Amino acid sequence: MFKLLKEVFRTGEATVKYPFAPLEISKDFRGKPEHTAEQCIACGACTIACPANALAMETDVAAGTRTWSISYARCIFCARCEEVCPTQAIKLTPDFELAVTNKADLTVKAVFKLADCVCCGEPFAPAKEIAYVTALIEATSVTSADGTTAAVSEDTERRRRMLATCPSCKRVNDLVQIARITDQQEKRR
Amino acid sequence: MKMDTPADIKRMKSSLLSNIRRSAYVYRVDCGGCNGCEIEIFAAITPIFDAERFGIKVVASPRHADILLFTGAVTRAMRMPALRAYEAAPDPKIVVSYGACGCSGGIFHDLYCVWGGTDQVVPVDVYIPGCPPTPPATIYGFAVALGLLDQKLKAKTHIEGEGEQAGIAHPAVPYNVRIHIEREARRMAGYRQGRDIADRFLGMLQIPGDLPLQQRVETFAAAETDPRLAEIYLQIGETLQHPELRP
Amino acid sequence: MNINVTDRVGASHIEYLRQKLPHAVLEERWQTDKQVTVTVKLNQLPEAVSTLYYGREGWLSVVVGNDERSLNDSFGLYYVLSMEGEEKCHVVVHAAVPSDNEEFPSVTPKVPGCVWGEREIRDMYGLRPVGLPDERRLVLPDDWPEGLHPLRKDSMDYRLRPQPTSDNENYQFRNDAAGETTVVPLGPLHITSDEPGHFRLFVDGEDIIDADYRMFYVHRGMEKLAETRMGYNEVTFLADRVCGICGYAHSVAYASSVENALGIIVPQRAQAIRSLLLETERLHSHMLNLGLVCHFVGFDSGFMQFFRVREKAMTLAEMLTGARKTYAINLIGGVRRDILGEQRTKTLQLVAELREDVQRLLEMLLATPNFGPRVAAVGLLDRKIARDYSPVGPLVRGSGFKRDTRVDHAFAGYKNVNLGVHTGDGCDVLSRTMVRAAEIFDSLSLIEQLLDNTPEGPIINEDFVYKPYQFALGFTEAPRGEDIHWSMTGDNQKLYRWRCRASTYANWPVLRYMLRGNTVSDAPLIVGSIDPCYSCTDRVTVVDVKKETSKTIPYKEIERYCRERKDSPLK
């Protein structure tokens, strides 16, 4: 009993002041995932990596949009999304004050436009994703451009066109090309 | 299967919230959680966080409860016990859904032996997300449940603006060099600390100077007091000697 | 995988088996240099398991079923034995059940520890263990449709939810007492902090004659989830959620099972970080249990003190991983966060504080007059029962067995540290509590050792090739004892089969023997002493053997009786 009392007096006030004063939290605490929609290219890497399916992506071809969403209700705060994001558009913040009375307030969405395929005109991929990859290719070609500018820009142009083509058109184009090559080989014989 | 709240009980509930002048009694209903939530609720009522200073007290029977705290994804075997606990609590009662599993089923949301969250079986008043919610998040949740604090989160929908474009990080550094640095930093220190380290390293590369790369990296590492960080900087510098990265 | 014959540990066990049962062994396959799977003839399975179990100091870790009909037209049965005599290693006894037969000879009559594993195989695969003395359901809910076996590959989608058929539980509780009894049910909801379970005590007056329990109220179907919705990397996060208290141990066990199966070399630094975090987890878990012991002996101030100090372990976890629980630090091949200089300093400081605090609290607890006499000679785990059922962790160490996976099968960073095994010989609640107390100081010292000699280099190796249909074991020593996982890769970046056995699963079957002969007021204390991720239940059915009366008593009443020891609820 004496030892207990000693311990009690030794400890004094142990309780934190929260919620009357802010709480000290580790810098890298995994709290609410914050999505910066401007920086997101809707590539879908996070939706595939999420173990809990808290992140989702829905494509509406008729409206030409792709909607990204996160449910904080389902989120398990593992930070896989942050780890796989190629543009640093999602990051876990130390914010832990997430309780709500209305479940709908636990969902954050972002709607992105789809780009149309340059061949068939059908929407197929987020416009921002294509723009981002195009910008990366251009940046790469600028840095390695000295001397052989013409050849490089021709290559860049070809890659840019390829990026703006939908998978099914690519397949058709490939077939056309294969047909042409076989044709030439036939002729050569 | 799901229960509903009649209108007069809704009225009683709002008057309970506005007139409560005594302790709020909480009964926990474990509907098949992993114990992570249970243990954090415990941490919330023990000395460091001490929810009891607000009169929040965990009680032993649903018949004494003002607040029912449901944890877990509601497993098949726990559906009836959960409903029995709900019915045993006197009206008006506040139902709190606790943790990712309670709020929506969490990582288990679509499994064969769960019903996917508290609101699949009983009406819920407050959701406390987290996996598990920390004790401060629990205290905040109770405060929201009792109407003492307002909720901060709001549903949001971002619509892509005209000309909106994702920026490229460190555009002055060649793409393959940046990717190489970021990958090596993640391999050495993981996604979070690695990203900070890569950013610092890339920042260093962009400071104008005539010294050869290796020398700059060595000076940078030598200025670092944390030996592990210095080791990582040197390691990243070494991989930059890779032939395909030479300009 | 190719393993040098000279590096293999455990070949003598196979030799022994071949000698004792000349024609039983069909094949041997080595997964790592200390893991071997021997295929035996199905009709000699019970002899093969018991030969290794009793003849070579084998302990049963887990029984795994696997639907391999698409691979080799059979169901696989794997009895995993941890060999703890000479040549410490894991031997897995495998037998194939032809797909058109659907039954196999039960091993339980020869090795009682197999009982839960075989009941689970019956539930999940619909294979009948012939000769199994207990044919009740184990895992599936009482109203689950007959004949629907979730882990059969062709049985159902993982999302199928059959409509509920009954609102009543109809589990048959078992009572081995001779003569008539009275029943005391306990559960499945509980008041303090317990997971759902349902107890039945069979009593004569105040004395417990027998006990039975229904667990698995929390069965969710994780193993099916791991082979359907998730990729192999995501399962590390699922494994974190097997248990909210010792989840990280599961995550490490799972990750190392896949790493062993695919032959991935995990960097030394990642291994050290894993061990360090496992010890952090042990700190908070053991302090939790010490707090609960205080609570059950009626010393609630002590409970609060232990929980106050325990928060330092939680702060440590938050700083190192970003979360107080569910660390989410593993990926296949390594870890996701490093320990930098700043964190190292803070960790050492917290460890030093914890050492002092825990020391003082322990002195306080031991100086409390009603503690020692209240827990000594209560809840005896007989050594013979322990040997037959293979319990793990502080429970078995409290009965004098030196079983500790960290020492027997050093994994992760434990190969490079100094660590002894604490045992007690009282076989009672006191011994188990003292083992846990000693282990707290071990954990603190291990964290310091690991920080003193942290290897340099990377923390993850993702440079590996995923190969289909490879399998192996992964194991850790969780706060409650050995966690063991068996994983087989599929052909689609997912798992074909994941079997995860938590430490408490191995400890439940002996609880009944520990309860027998004690008084009703000791029941919560005994259940708490196996640290079952929290005691268990809220309703105890007490059955009086002589009076033939049955009375349902709320668990809180029993718990109050345990704490105050007056006004018996049975009167």
Automatic annotation (TrEMBL), chain A:
Name the GO cellular-component terms.
membrane
Which keywords accompany this UniProt record?
4Fe-4S, Iron, Iron-sulfur, Metal-binding, Repeat, Ubiquinone
Which residue ranges does UniProt annotate as crossing the membrane? none
Please give the Pfam families that the UniProt record associates with this protein: Fer4_7 (PF12838)
Q: Which GO terms describe its molecular function?
A: 4 iron, 4 sulfur cluster binding; metal ion binding; NADH dehydrogenase activity
InterPro entries (alphabetical) = 4Fe4S_Fe-S-bd, 4Fe4S_Fe_S_CS, NADH_quinone_OxRdtase_chainI
Highest taxon listed in the record's lineage: Bacteria
Q: Is Methyltransferase among this UniProt entry's keywords?
A: no
Q: Where is the 4Fe-4S ferredoxin-type domain?
A: 31-60, 66-95
- GO terms under biological process: aerobic respiration
Q: Which PANTHER family match?
A: FORMATE HYDROGENLYASE SUBUNIT 6-RELATED (PTHR10849:SF35), NADH DEHYDROGENASE UBIQUINONE IRON-SULFUR PROTEIN 8, MITOCHONDRIAL (PTHR10849)
For this entry, the protein name equals Hydrogenase-4 component H
Q: Which organism is it from?
A: Rhodopseudomonas rhenobacensis
Lineage of the source organism? Bacteria, Pseudomonadati, Pseudomonadota, Alphaproteobacteria, Hyphomicrobiales
From TrEMBL, chain B:
Instruction: Tell me yes or no: is Hydrolase among this UniProt entry's keywords.
Output: no
Q: Which UniProt keywords apply?
A: 4Fe-4S, Cell membrane, Iron, Iron-sulfur, Membrane, Metal-binding
Q: Pfam families from the xrefs?
A: Oxidored_q6 (PF01058)
Task: Cite the InterPro entries for this sequence.
Answer: Complex_I_20kDa-like, NADH_UbQ_OxRdtase-like_20kDa
Q: Does the keyword Cell membrane apply?
A: yes
Q: Which SUPFAM superfamilies match?
A: HydA/Nqo6-like
> What molecular function terms (GO) are annotated for this protein?
4 iron, 4 sulfur cluster binding; metal ion binding
- What residues does the NADH:ubiquinone oxidoreductase-like 20kDa subunit domain cover? 34-142
Q: Which cofactors does the annotated protein need, by name?
A: [4Fe-4S] cluster
Q: Would you identify the family this protein belongs to, as annotated?
A: Belongs to the complex I 20 kDa subunit family.
- Report the protein name in the record: NADH:ubiquinone oxidoreductase-like 20kDa subunit domain-containing protein
Source lineage = Bacteria, Pseudomonadati, Pseudomonadota, Alphaproteobacteria, Hyphomicrobiales
From TrEMBL, chain C:
- InterPro entries membership: ComplexI_49kDa-like, NADH_Q_OxRdtase_suD, NADH_quin_OxRdtase_su_C/D-like, NADH_UbQ_OxRdtase_30kDa_su, NADH_UbQ_OxRdtase_49kDa_CS, Ni-dep_hyd_lsu, NiFe-Hase_large
| Keyword annotations of the record | 4Fe-4S, Iron, Iron-sulfur, Lyase, Magnesium, Metal-binding, NAD, Nickel, Oxidoreductase
Q: Which cofactor does it need?
A: Ni(2+); [4Fe-4S] cluster; Fe cation
What is an example of a Pfam family matching this protein? Complex1_49kDa
Ranges of residues in domain NADH:ubiquinone oxidoreductase 30kDa subunit: 38-155
Which residues fall in a coiled-coil region?
A: none
Family, per entry? Belongs to the complex I 49 kDa subunit family.
Aminoacyl-tRNA synthetase as a keyword of this entry, yes or no, is: no
Molecular function GO labels: 4 iron, 4 sulfur cluster binding; lyase activity; NAD binding; NADH dehydrogenase (ubiquinone) activity; nickel cation binding; oxidoreductase activity, acting on NAD(P)H; quinone binding
For Mg(2+), which residues are the binding ones? Answer: E223
This protein's superkingdom? Bacteria
Descriptive protein name: Formate hydrogenlyase subunit 5
